[in-house]
Backbone:
């Protein structure tokens, strides 16, 4: 089965089926539809390249009629981390376009994750007091969504006074308790020390250059 899938607006897909459905049947072209309640589009995967070409031609015609106002159509690779050979065959323009789509998707996912985390926090703030009131530390709850094991764990976490870091560092060194600190060098002041001849870098630290790609849609 082809690893090329298309995400189309529902109305666009229905229009395609109304105008090309019989052609697909006559040519025995199979496809698989995937619909998820939380997504505003339908994912269609064809088993034959001919079907893919028919969809591409149809969408190109519809986009021309509507001044490109049709809800997105995009080729979706099942997992780009496993498509190295396919990526090598693509043009720079294609790769940048895919990267742009992925970054847009990442932003949307991050926004959704932030909202979901906020809702999770709100629910937990209501559930924890209820469990405490019922004196429950571990139990199994049956819900409409399935069975869940629920447990409460308490852990102590440090909360340093931000105005007393010098005292904390001094105490850690004097008492040989360096395991209390994260073993990491701060990149910004380290780079500054490399660029300033008046600043020394600590022994035992090597540097490496990391190249990053910046992408901004204009």
Residues:
């Amino acid at each position: 089965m082809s690893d090329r899938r298309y995400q189309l607006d529902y109305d666009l897909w229905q229009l395609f089926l109304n105008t090309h459905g019989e052609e697909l049947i006559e040519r025995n072209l199979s496809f698989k539809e995937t619909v998820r309640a939380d997504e505003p589009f339908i994912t269609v995967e064809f088993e034959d390249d001919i079907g893919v070409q028919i969809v591409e031609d149809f969408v190109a015609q519809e986009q021309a009629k509507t001044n490109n106002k049709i809800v997105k159509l995009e080729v979706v690779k099942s997992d780009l981390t496993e498509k190295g050979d396919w990526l090598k065959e693509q043009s720079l323009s294609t790769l940048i376009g895919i990267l742009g789509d992925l970054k847009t998707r990442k932003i949307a996912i991050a926004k959704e994750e932030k909202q979901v985390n906020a809702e999770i926090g709100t629910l937990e703030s209501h559930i924890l007091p209820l469990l405490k009131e019922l004196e429950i530390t571990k139990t199994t709850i049956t819900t409409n969504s399935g069975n869940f094991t629920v447990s409460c764990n308490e852990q102590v976490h440090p909360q340093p006074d931000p105005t007393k870091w010098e005292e904390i560092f001094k105490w850690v060194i004097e008492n040989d308790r360096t395991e209390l600190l994260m073993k990491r060098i701060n990149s910004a002041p380290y780079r500054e020390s490399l660029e300033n001849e008046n600043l020394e870098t600590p022994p035992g630290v090597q540097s490496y250059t990391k190249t990053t790609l910046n992408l901004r849609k204009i």
Q: What stands out?
A: Residues 68-77 have pLDDT under 50 and may be disordered. Residues 92-133 form the longest helix (42 residues). Residues 146 and 199 are 60 Å apart (CA to CA).
